[in-house]
Amino acid sequence: MEELTTYPSDQSVGTTGEKPFSTSAIKGHFFSIWPYRLVRILLAGIFLWSGVTKLMDLKSFAVIIEAYGLIPESWVMPVAVILPTIEAIAALGLLMDIEGSLAVVSGLLVMFMAILGYGIRMGFDVDCGCFGPDDPEGKAFHGLRPALYRDVVMMAGVFYLYFWRYHQSLSPVRLRALLNNQSGEES
To answer: I need a surface site. Which of 2, 17, 159, 179 has the fewest CB within 10 A?
Structure first.
């Protein structure tokens, strides 16, 4: 029978004193700043791309919204303007790690998942409208289920960001503090 290899405390690796393949080494990487930044930037990029592409063709996006039949016809165009604008602004806020932007992104994801779930339940065969009217994903998969699965993965990223912030006791930048710093530099 083979003996298990143990690492005495004097054979630690690196400057942190962590042993190879220890849970604390994995935990150290999971809670380092780089995965947090990567997930935050990826989510921001997705939401920015989504918002901007919808804003570039509002009439086509309005047709997609209308296909779901969830809002009165008179609200379709205002929603087609407001929704992608909120997406783009929240994405920029998330990119700069501004307080409240992650909450807006998570709220949008919950709303999108609810709408996609509704569409799946009703048996709709429509483009999700997630990345505007010329969405390559919509053309390739043409279904609501892949969009719902993608949103679930993005929500996992949101949960990771919240968990990381809680674990690191980190608060995002307050917009007021950011604006005060900008005005102080100009003086």
So the answer is: 2
Q: Is residue 180 part of a domain?
A: no
Nearest-angstrom CA–CA distance, 184 and 176 = 12
pTM for the whole structure = 0.76
Q: Is the dihedral of CA 12, 14, 15, 20 positive or negative?
A: negative
16 within domain boundaries: no
Is residue 85 domain-resident? Answer: yes
Burial of 94 (0-12, 13-18, 19+ CB in 10 A): buried
CB 94, CB 101: distance < 8 Å: yes
Domain count of the fold of the chain: 1
Condensed to tens digits (0 to 9), the pLDDT of residues 110-157 reads: 999 999 999 999 988 887 888 876 665 555 446 899 999 999 999 999
Range of 89's domain?
33-175
